[in-house]
Amino acid sequence: MEMSGPSESPQSFWFFALLPMALTLGWLAVTRRRLPPGPRGVPFIGSILSTEQLNHRGLAKLAERYGGLFLLHFAATRTVVVSSPEMARQVLQVHDGVFSNRPATAAIRYLTYDRSDMAFANYGPFWRQMRKLCVMKLFSRRRGESWASVRDETDAAVRAVAAAAAATPEASVNVSELVFNLAKGIIYCAAFGLSSSEGQDQFIAILQEFSKLFGAFNVADFVPWLAPLDLHGLRKRMEAARAALDGFIDEIIDKHRVNPKATDDLNTDMVDEMIVFLGETPAADGDELQASFKITRENIKAIIMDVMFGGTETVASAIEWVMAELMRSPEDMKRVQQELAEAVGLDRKVNEGDIKNLSFLKCCIKETLRLHPPIPLLLHETAEDCELAGYHIPARTTVKINVWAIARDRSAWEDADSFKPARFAAAEAPDFKGSCFEFIPFGSGRRSCPGMQLGLYALEMAVAQLLHCFNWELPDGMKPCDLDMSDVFGLTAPRAVRLVAVPSPRLTCSLI
Ligand code: HEM
User: Fold this and answer.
1) Is the CB of 314 under 6 A from ligand 1?
2) Is there a contact between 328 and 421 (Cβ–Cβ < 8 Å)?
3) Which GO terms describe its molecular function (predicted)?
4) pLDDT digits over 293-338, tens only?
5) How confident is the model over 179-197, as pLDDT tens digits?
């Protein structure tokens, strides 16, 4: 039989003749799509920016030049930066289905058991189930244990300050350390049901190593084919960190399985709530979520890390910033303490029922969250190609929403850089529930903070108690205007300089 070669068929001839033209037209169509503006980069490398230019302040400066939506290239990766309330609304509300994935570095993927958690899982059915579990079971107001740990740990902090003040009057207290231990204690007890003295140091060491690994620069995140070379030697450290977490939490899970609590017990901790969803555990009668959804030990470990990372530094840095802003603004401090004296009285500590009567204190907390959002840059990723404000945003683009810059946008806020809590007393003042895009310290839409209620309760209770129980003076005759208000950028944006202040008891009752 005689075979005919490709060159002899007319169809093949046209196919090979037109292929280069089709490819060229396709390539032109893709490259001619209008990308957002941004600094011109070096070929193959992209934008060369210092780490200062990549934090919330540096990106806000770039936004002054390139606008509310701009693009940065780094090697094979793209990042769009959103810096205006209207662009945030487009991303978090109008196109939220496209913008609700999360970017993940190699360290994040490994340390979250390949995104077995909620915070780093991409948007989809798995994330929806995890979110339901968190909202309905773990962070629900009905689960009293977390709320009880806020009260217990706040009381313990007050006792510690009172004891220090009684032992050495006029000695200063490291407020940063105090509030960080307080927030850690709250989340640790809420998660494991253990008192903060049991095993906390070991767990905090694991968290610190996770935090370092999350923040470590890894060239393979920008040039993926370099990953197998492990150029920074991170693999061994990541394996050791995850093994340490496995050992720690497996032991806690096993102890909880030996002594299970009834699901209607008001004193369940987060591990109690999650182990009933473990594949090995039969579903309780009538619980639809339990019957339809099973999780693994890895899911439990990854969720616990979400809660520890999401709930500790955020709450601690917010408490510290409120204290610092009020110490810098003595008139506002006086007004808060006056409100506390009238609503609570000077013969007892604050309790939960008092919080609703502390409207000026709530204004101070909102104004602090505006000026110092604990998570200044929200990290999202596009799931597919999208048009935004007339620009083409390709799939798998990292999206950074600069909450810090948006909350200081001069077109949305008068005297945007000043601490003026009274602005939130107005009836039409924005709230932080997510529909006022000029003020989104808890995010907005699908990926917004599921721990907002618990976080706010901890924040309001801690600030109210510390300001009601004590007067606070700056040490060594320091004037309020001398307080350094700069921040550092990591997972959150805490104060760069630790806040130190001298407490003196204010109440007629005993605090110890
Ligand atoms: C003052 C306190 C807090 C602030 C300001 C805060 C803020 C935020 C923000 C801005 C986000 C990201 C939103 C986005 O990406 O669009 C977030 C997510 C999250 N927060 Fe909070 N948070 C606080 C407290 C808490 C607490 C106490 C917990 C847990 C007990 C928590 C757990 C989480 C989790 C798990 C996520 C990831 C949600 C997801 O990806 O679906 N947060 N938070």
Assistant:
1) yes
2) no
3) heme binding; iron ion binding; monooxygenase activity; oxidoreductase activity, acting on paired donors, with incorporation or reduction of molecular oxygen
4) 789 999 999 999 999 999 999 999 999 999 999 999 999 999 999 9
5) 999 999 999 888 888 776 7
What pLDDT is stored for residue 416 in this prediction? 97
Q: Which ligand 1 atom is the nearest neighbour of the CA of 92? A: 16
C-beta of 336 in contact with ligand 1 (< 6 A): no
Query: Is the distance from CB of 80 to CB of 71 less than 8 angstroms?
Result: yes
Taking the CA of residue 142 as centre, how many other CA atoms within 13 Å lie in the half-sphere pointing to its CB?
Answer: 8
Distance between CA 356 and CA 68 in Å, rounded? 37
Fold assignment, 98-375+407-505: Cytochrome p450 (1.10.630)
434 lines ligand 1 (CB under 6 A): no
Q: Which long-range contacts (CB under 8 A, 24 or more apart) does 240-247 make?
A: 240/209, 241/111, 241/206, 241/209, 241/210, 241/213, 242/110, 242/111, 242/113, 244/206, 244/209, 245/206, 245/210, 245/301, 245/305, 246/301
- Which residue numbers in the chain have pLDDT < 50? 1-7
> Which atom of ligand 1 lies nearest, measured to the CA of 121?
40
Measured from the CB, is residue 185 less than 6 Å from ligand 1? no
- Angle ∠(287,288,290) on CA atoms, nearest 5: 70
Predicted local confidence at residue 1, as pLDDT: 37
Global pTM reads: 0.90
State whether residue 472 is helix, strand or coil. strand
Name the residue ranges covered by the structural domains of the chain: 98-375+407-505
Atom in ligand 1 nearest the alpha carbon of residue 139: 30
Query: How many CA atoms does the CB half-sphere of 201 hold within 13 Å?
Result: 1
Q: Taking the chain, what is the end-to-end CA distance rounded to the nearest angstrom? A: 102
Reference 73, options 108, 48, 98, 99; nearest CA is: 48
